[in-house]
Amino acid sequence: MGEETQYFSKDFEWEELREEIENDLSLRHHLLPFDPSAPSPSLSLSNESEAWKSFHNRHSTGRFFKERRYLLKEFPELLTCDADSKVLEVGCGNGSTVLPILRGKQIITVYACDCSMEALERAKDIICTTDGLSIEHRFHPFLCDLSLNGFPKWLICDFCRKPSPHKPNDFCLSDANKNKEVSMDRISSEGGQCCIGGVDFVTLIFTLSAMPFQKMPKAIAKCISVLKPGGLLLFRDYGLYDMTMLRFPPERRVGFREYMRSDGTLSYFFSLDTVRNLFVSAGFIELDLEYCCIKSVNRRNEKHMRRVWVHGKFQKPIQSCPSSAPH
Asked: What's the average model confidence in pLDDT over 206-213?
């Protein structure tokens, strides 16, 4: 798809797809409640990150992902935001989301995290070698596994939110020093504080579906904790009855609408109600939530594919009491 091509999100109606799928007996196993006693891949809730690290090692050339230029059409707020706006990209992979954001808004700062150091290194390589893209002081990758840990304190901390004449300047720097991707000089120079004071946007692009469903509520709570009041969380992920979901055989199910690929990575497929409940329960205000239904064609075999993604925008309330970030 060319950069200037009009982007459509309604090539077909999701309700028509739902009716077709739910009337197809060969796909009935996707609709049944999950039986924990049924044969399924062995799932350790602590090793899904290792599976993704191995994935990025295998795809270290970066050819597996394409730059997601359509995101600026889906989320125009990233183009119209203030000059000093800060974005946190969660699960940045090799930079396929970060690159169009940095390219589209030359005065925006992006903080990007991933559980894989190899992915972060690849993202830096891609972005640093992009012609005409000035990234000095604009792109800051750091290692963080959101499914296991909270964000580093230097993103925002309760102590920094509360003015105090006795506040030490290096309160958060011990946490930052543990992360080789973070410059203590840069952090301490941000307004003379020991943290950057929160971000204006959090992007969750095909990241939440990669962690076990039971870990999603805490992950979303961590995201709202680093947003400034009034900040936006921009969400895009796999939708219910997407083509990839229907390809999974029954033995790959590890939960309701949750599957494990042969390489050990997870994939969850969201309904609108599930997404709404997750984010509203965390304290977000729903601004936009819909299925994006796209038809694509495999040019090699002329096979038509129906892709379903969930598109959402959620806002942190402007009037909110500071709360501790989950750890």
From this structure: 94
Do the bridges between strand 258-260 and strand 266-268 make them parallel or antiparallel, or are there none, so unpaired?
antiparallel
- Contact call for residues 53 and 263 (beta carbons, < 8 A): no
pLDDT over 50 (residue 53) = yes
3-state secondary structure the chain: CCCCCCCCCECCCHHHHHHHHHCCHHHHHHCCCCCCCCCCCCCCCCCHHHHHHHHHHHCCCCCCCCCCCCHHHHCCHHHHCCCCCEEEEECCCCCCCHHHHHHHCCCCEEEEEECCHHHHHHHHHHHHCCCCCCCCCCEEEEECCCCCCCCCHHHCCHHHHCCCCCCCCCCCHHHHHCCCCCCHHHHHHCCCCCCCCCEEEEEEECCHHHCCHHHHHHHHHHHHHHEEEEEEEEEEEEECCCHHHHHCCHHHEEECCEEECCCCCEEECECHHHHHHHHHHCCCEEEEEEEEEEEEEECCCCEEEEEEEEEEEEECCCCCCCCCCCC
pLDDT at 37: 74
**Mean predicted lDDT score pLDDT of the chain:** 80
Tell me the C-alpha to C-alpha distance, in Å, between residue 184 and each of 136, 158, 171, 177, 194. Answer: 16, 19, 11, 7, 9
Give me the pLDDT at residue 166, please. 37
Q: What pLDDT is stored for residue 194 in this prediction?
A: 58
Domain locations in the chain?
14-20+45-304
Q: How do beta strands 253-255 and 258-260 pair? A: antiparallel
What CATH class is the domain 14-20+45-304? alpha beta
Please give the Cα distance from 202 to 99 (Å, whole number). 15
Which residue bears the tokens 């200037």?
Answer: 4
Q: Two tokens at 113?
A: 């995290």
Confidence class of residue 157 from pLDDT cuts 50, 70 and 90? low
Residue 181 pLDDT level (bands cut at 50, 70, 90): very low
With 90 as the cut, is the pLDDT of residue 321 above it? no
pLDDT surpassing 70 at residue 308: yes
